[in-house]
Amino acid sequence: MKVDFIYRRLVAAVAGVLLPVSLASAYEPTDSAKRFIHHVGVDFRGAYVAPARKSVEDTYYVAPPQDAGASAHIKYSFSYPSGSREGRLYPGAYQGIGVGATSFFDNSNTGMPVSAYLFQGAPIVRLAPNLTFDYEWNFGVSFGWRKYRDDYRTPVNLIVGSPVNAYINLGFLLTYRINRDWSLTAGVDLTHYSNGNTSIPNPGVNSIGGRIGVTRTFDGDRALRTLADNYSPVSFRPHISYDVVAYGAVRKKVVALNGFPEILPGHFGIAGLNFAPMYNFNRFLRAGVSLDVQYDESSNLSDHWVEGSVGESIKFYRPSFFSQVSWGLSARGELVMPIFSINAGMGYNLIGNTDAKNFYQVLALKIHVAKSLYVHIGYQLNSFKNPNNLMIGLGYRFHDKR
Question: How many CA atoms lie within 13 A of 309 on its CB side?
Answer without folding.
Answer: 14
